Queue: 2 jobs
Job 1
Amino acid sequence: MAGSRDSDDSGPFAKPVEGETPSGGLPTLRRKAVECRACPLWRDATQTVFGEGSSRARVMLIGEQPGDKEDLAGAPFVGPAGRLLRAALEQSGLSPRDVYLTNTVKHFKFVRRGKVRLHQRANAAEQAACRPWLAAEFQRIRPQLVVALGAMAAHTVFGRGFSLTAQRGQWHALPAGIPGMATWHPSAILRKRGRERELAHRELEADLRGVADALADAEPPRQDDGD
């Protein structure tokens, strides 16, 4: 695949997973994740926001962390950024059944300003605490392609040396030969203005069309025992 390179890591992601990776099908993993107390984010969040999609999904889209809307709904990408992403996926020709949506961090981190909850970036320890869940999702789904949305997800998948600005839209060979790509997070696009937003939006759609094209060239999806 054009623009690919080998990763020097032996695990599914660039950063090591500490501790045992949870096991089970996706429904079991969701139930287990509700009880996770590995970091303090669960205390203020409304609920765990686990990934969404089929275990047969061929593409794993990894975002950064839930926002206010996701925290209330208990599902990833349901706010304004999610609407932008889902529209871009539709434009790209990717079928919803082929896509598994998840985040690097499974709880909403925020600071209150009156009645408003303002998003805060999860720190390195909080990201590391969630990594076993991401690894478990990866191992259960065994996607054919991985797409990181935004810098946090890109650093988790490809390492801290990865530059989203310079390397966006390029394929990189993850361990086991699985191709991975990073592109803009839709929330970052929404923060831009004018021509910068239009350009980033076009780039996201172009990258997702590249994912759809790569998927069309890949082997047919496997058959297994379901979720």
Job 2
Amino acid sequence: MFSVIFDMDGTLLNTQRPYITAWEWAGEKQGYKNFGKYISRVCGMNEMGVRAFVTERYPEIDIVKFRADVRQYMHDNLVVRFKEGAKELLDYLKARDIKIALATGTSRPSAEHHLKEVCILEMFDVIVCGTEVENGKPAPDVFLKTAELLGADPVDCFVFEDSENGINAGFAAGMKCIGIEDVAIFSEEAKKRMFCQLDNLSQAIEIFEKM
């Protein structure tokens, strides 16, 4: 039996794209323009990775204020919704007693808040967040820890991801990666590391039906 591991932002939920505007807003508060262009580069990273990415490029930025402003914008403006086909796929997997997990770079408070907003928090057998592993995506740590907690062999796990960092992490963990593009466009190198690429999550049902 296989297990399924989902990324959250931009994969299951619409919570990735709003970060573009949030970063633009938070950057402009400190006099920086076009910060939203970096979102595709940091997709999947945990908090430590994001902080390092920003401060390496802008050493003078007040990173604490920047991250606080991003969180404030998201709190005030985000309306959490499913990505296309997400609920259908989750229901399909649960109905067949297939173990499902969440492996996200997002902090646990944010992840649990978003999952509660769409009433799916209790659907996951395991949730592992970015602050709970040493190295964020593209390192495989979050996926390996998730598989361990599931009691699953990594080779028996399917990973759904919208980011290149996530695809690289899942591939490094030895898992089968299924790509769903959102903010980031997958490179040809990332596509070579995928089991397949889909337009929406419900298309995976046909794949699992054949297994």
